[in-house]
Structure formats: C-alpha cells, structure tokens
Amino acid sequence: MLSRSLLTDPVLGKTLSSLTYSYLVYFYNRCKYVTSPTQTALNLLTDHGLHVPSGVISNGIDLSYYAQRPAEPEVVRRLGLPEDRPLIIHVNRLSDEKRIDVLLDAMARMHTPAHLALISSGPAEAALRAQVERLQIQDRVSFLGFVRDSDLLSLRHSAQLFVIPSEADLQSLAMMEAMACGLPIVAANAYALPELVHHQQNGFLFQPGNSEEMAFQMDLILQDKNLQASMGAESLNIVAAHDRNKVLDQWERLYLQLAREFAELHKVRQPVHAL
User: Fold this and answer.
1) Both 25 and 108 in a single domain?
2) Are residues 165 and 204 in the same domain?
3) Which has the closest alpha carbon to 161: 128, 127, 112, 122?
4) 3-class SS of residue 33
C-alpha cells in the first residue's frame, strides 16, 4: 500500500495534536511507502515516528498553462484595480494562520505607491477589512474574493510581485503558480516556503511576523526593474522541477519500483509436472 501524506493542509500541518500524529503515523507505518510534497512535511512525520520507506514527490503544475499571456489591461480595469502603480497579489485563504495582518501592516509601511490585490475569502475577512480602515490604506488594498481562473492568470501576468506571509504552509500551490508566471516572491521564512523561495535569488524571505522587514523587501523589488526581472527568471528556473510531467514520471517510477518489489516478494514457483 502506497500512502500520500495528508499534511499538506496548512492548518492541520501546524496544529495537529500529538495524539492525532500518533494515529496518522500508525497508519502510515503500515504502508509500503509514504510520500509528502515537501521535505518539511515529511520531516513532520519522521519526527513523530514514521519509519517506513518514504520520499518527497511534489504536487505538479502545468507550466505550459501559466506561460500563456492573455490580454491583461481589460481584466485589471474590470476588477477595479489601478493601472498606474505596481500590483502585488496574494492568493490564499483569508484566515488567521495566513498572517495577512502582517501583510497589511507592511503595506502601510511601504514607500512604493503599490496596490495589493487579496484574491480569496475566508473567516478573517471582516477583521482584515477593519484593519485596512484602521491603517487608512483603503486606496491601496482590494478584496477581490473569488476570481475565475482566466482572470487570475491575467492578474498574475499583470502583477509585479507575489507575497505570502503565511506561517503554516507545507506547500503553496498558489506560490508555485505565481513562480510559473515569472513573478518574484516575498515570503515568510516559515515551514516549507524556503524550499521554493531561495533568499536573494528568486525573492526574499523575512522573519515571520516582521512587517517592517517585509515592507523593506517589497520596496526593494518594486523599485528595481532589473531585480524584478532577474528574480522572476529564477522563479521560472526553480519551479521547472515541479512541472506536472516530471512529477508524473516520478510517480510512475515509484509505482513500477514497488510493483517489482511486490512481485519479487510474492513470486510463486511453478510446479514441475512429471512427464
């Protein structure tokens, strides 16, 4: 039996009790092989007693889809976003563990007249809207809620920067998709985010919760087009390893390996019939 670790859920990965981990690891240790999408997620399991063979196989994305460049200005206008300033996007559930409060504080500290688009919804939305009003940055932040895929692709290609202050992500598909669109990243140095964000290469990592450092890094990227371009190109280089075809190849090799091992272990000798 092959098992895929369920710890990709950001809330579960951060808050599972020892008892729940014990149950999960008990199940996983009955499997032939266990995979997780990141080394960070796998380490959580081994730290709690996983001892069967295991490895990392990323979630895969269709890089060819994100390479498309649809018409962008019309989407930006239709969604009510300004066209005369840099666009920062954040695609993640609006909940406490995503630390969007840190991002809003950073927006208030920035010197660059950038605009932030929050793409999603969630239980923390009302509190975040109140924070925007308290910080008096209503003209710099848009709550877009659900955005259809074609428009989201346009926004990624219209943006100059993707940001993720979350302290609980064990693999961020939204960040991978932004990287596939050639965006530089500013991310919290937490959980699995540093596995994709290489500091000073395709973006910056800031101390979790430090809005001042985050604001400085966002300013640094948005004020330097050459830095934007070089970091965006490196994002493409890094995310190339997560192309879905490469990931499918990894799964196929693993299944074939396990099938061979199973066949060898359960090989039955054919009886020899007397002539």
Assistant:
1) no
2) yes
3) 112
4) strand
Residues 31, 75: one domain?
Answer: no
Cα first-last separation, the chain: 41
pLDDT 10s digits, 29-64: 999 999 999 999 999 999 999 999 999 999 999 999
Quick check: 54 and 42 in contact, CB under 8 A? yes
Helix residue spans in the chain (DSSP H): 10-15, 18-28, 39-47, 63-66, 73-78, 100-109, 125-135, 149-158, 173-180, 211-222, 225-239, 244-265
**Residue 205 domain boundaries:** 63-240
My answer on whether 31 and 72 are in the same domain is: no
The model's pLDDT over 70-115, given as tens digits with 9 standing for 90+, comes to: 778 899 999 999 999 999 999 999 999 999 999 999 999 999 999 9
Whether the predicted pLDDT of 270 surpasses 80: no
Residues 209 and 77 reside in one and the same domain: yes
CA distances from 129 to 10, 123, 142, 204 (A): 23, 11, 10, 26
Tokens 């981990």 label which residue? 21
Dist CA 38 CA 73 (whole Å): 36
Summarize pLDDT for 120-139 with one digit per residue, the tens: 999 999 999 999 999 999 99
Q: Are residues 83 and 50 in the same domain?
A: no
User: CA 151 from chain center: how many Å?
Assistant: 19
Task: Indicate the range of 38-47, 161-170, 241-250, 257-266 predicted with least confidence.
Answer: 257-266
Q: Are 20 and 172 in contact (CB under 8 A)?
A: no
Cα–Cα distance for residue pair 206/140, rounded to 1 Å: 22
Q: HSE-up of 30 (CA within 13 Å, CB side)?
A: 5
The two tokens of residue 65 are 């889809």
Q: In the block, which residue shows the tokens 């924070």?
A: 131
